[in-house]
Design brief:
5-stranded mixed sheet; two-stranded antiparallel sheet; about 20% helix
Length: about 100
């Protein structure tokens, strides 16, 4: 992936995550039903309709988007409902300890 494409993807994600943080609170994973679909964030596509989709689907994605650390541990997770981020992002360090919202 080119640097400009990666920067563009990161800016889109950051914008969506900020909107999600402002839109509501709560654990992103806890807010979804137990059977919620989990997808690696890199597989999702931000389309012209302003929503996140799986590449093969015309419908906006509903489920949990996850990014992993290079060692395979979860880095963060956020919930998407019909392509829009909802609730809080949850983050973990490379050892699996919560970073955000933290353990306080």
């Amino acid at each position: 992936m080119s640097a400009s494409k990666a920067n563009h993807d990161w800016r889109l994600l950051a914008t969506c995550l900020i909107v999600g943080l402002l839109a509501g609170c709560g654990d992103p994973v806890k807010n979804m039903p137990v059977e919620a679909k989990e997808v690696e964030f890199q597989r999702l596509v931000y389309k012209g309709d302003g929503l996140w989709h799986e590449p093969e689907s015309a419908k906006p994605f509903t489920g949990v988007a996850i990014k992993y650390h290079p060692n395979g541990m979860k880095a963060w997770a956020t919930t998407l409902d019909e392509g829009k981020p909802i609730g809080r992002v949850k983050e973990w360090d490379e050892e699996g300890k919560p970073i955000w919202p933290g353990s306080h």
